């Protein structure tokens, strides 16, 4: 059975050592994922140029609104054509500003092993954000609380497959809105030691977010290192508002990363046409990207976009549709042309339960983003009901999908090709490779080995309790949360962080009136 | 983690058996051969070496294979190491009249040329200390009958991957019935499209859903058989 050239098999310590080693192999992964596949291109170079030129024409001729006094002043000083809040930008100035942005940058955290690069040839996964509801560990849908958010952060910290904590993976709706950002950041910083999304909804909240990040990481450290992302959404069509731009400035001035996402509801706030939707979306993104460089040349930023099509039966957003897949491919082409990393929405679904629709939509979203070469796979965990629900079971399943998609994105290695062909010679017709030395050497890495997806025989599955995917995922989530350990934090730092939250609660009225 | 400094002959009996369990787990053929020899030189009965060092070691391997800790290629390596130990023990076991684990004739049924699963079962059975006569693929009923006559096995194993070939198992079992020998043998069936109901319907003693279950089932039947005889 064995070939004569079998490499010496060495003692590895029997059962105890192997079991321990297999456990250790499951530790969270935090490194940079490099793309090895060639991205899908949905349009020709000529068609891409038409879209790019259309975006420039939109910004030059129609212009875009910056509903923010500071931004308007900055655009005037930079020499843009400003009338009221309408800013008309000429292509040369626009592209000159964008060329100041770094193509690649690192993110890290207080844990130095959490370090990865965001770049046009890398892939990063972030947990979902913004759900006002959870589908909890009993499978019940209800308004989410701070304890739910803490559990989501615990899962994010423990599951391999995430680079970035979502910040407000679910909303702590049991906390007054004006205080919420304090507790969201507190949980990101205490429950995880990962780079995380801070809050950008307004100047005060963004500045509090940065201040809390600085308490834990040190201001000097953050002046040198990106540990936080700020998500800045556009109001399509063609509006960037003050709330988000204030958040943008706070993050950029503190040397943190911003993600600039036009919000496309295809056929509702863009034309009912794919290339025209992309041209508008791209114009919106380019304007915000250029503005970011106006605020701070060299600022770290990501070309964002959130794209769904809209059901003309109800007006509801639809995930997993072919148009979004096509839009992803073209945004990828444009972002590479501009030399900027870009994001997609990796795991989106409109399903009301963690069912087949949820799986189909999410799988398409994943493949759509990865095959288009997306650099930040955002909302890659938990997203159901068009983002209104964070499903804890789906979060666990998605975490495994992140690893699966990572493997796909890394492409095909030829490192072992010659050795493997030798195995073909050894085995010849009619044999099998299960006991061959090459299989022994490579089987663990050669093929992805999922744990959540079920490959048992029907009988084994029955013996193990006939559990469907949601059930298995909920059990895994429970056991992860039970075994969770908080990452270490200097007690003095923790005290300062807690005191900051208490002090800000004194200063900020809990009333939104 | 690896410790190549271990001198097996320096270990006490208990330590050596423990080390052999680890070495079987790690699939170390040479070390298992050496350990087997050392125990024999120290006056251990071949049957004691088989059961306490080898079979017990493979029981641990089987358990962790079942629980998803060990993978197929690793288990094959362990089975290979076990076989090497068995190769030394087999003539001695015969000479000392020690009880046998059992003998199995195994093959893929007529019309079917799929044998990965069948091979896996064969190797796992050998790993558990059974004598295995592998008839290969595409076996007509005559081949099974001839093998039964020639080898006098305890167990007949039949495998199929195709829904179109699996009914042939019934042909083999019915022939055994006609010849009045069905109850002299344990018949185990397996293959992806089979299930328990099918196993019962064709008159097999058990359906084995995978290689680990095949070994457990075979051992179980052998225990019962010995109890009856004793």
Automatic annotation (TrEMBL), chain A:
The keyword Acyltransferase does not apply. The keyword Methyltransferase applies. GO terms for molecular function: methyltransferase activity. GO terms for biological process: methanogenesis; methylation. Keywords: Methyltransferase, Transferase. Its EC number is 2.1.1.-. Pfam families: MTTB. Belongs to the trimethylamine methyltransferase family. This is Methyltransferase. It comes from Mesorhizobium prunaredense.
Automatic annotation (TrEMBL), chain B:
The keyword Metal-binding applies. Residues 7-101 form the B12-binding N-terminal domain. It holds the Pfam family B12-binding. Transmembrane segments: none annotated. The keyword Metal-binding applies. SMART domains: B12-binding_2. Keywords: Cobalt, Metal-binding, Methyltransferase, Transferase. Residues 101-230 form the B12-binding domain. Gene3D superfamilies: Cobalamin-binding domain, Methionine synthase domain. It comes from the Bacteria. One of its GO terms (molecular function) is cobalamin binding. Belongs to the methylamine corrinoid protein family. PANTHER family: METHIONINE SYNTHASE (PTHR45833:SF1). This is Corrinoid methyltransferase protein. It comes from Mesorhizobium prunaredense. The lineage of its organism: Bacteria, Pseudomonadati, Pseudomonadota, Alphaproteobacteria, Hyphomicrobiales.
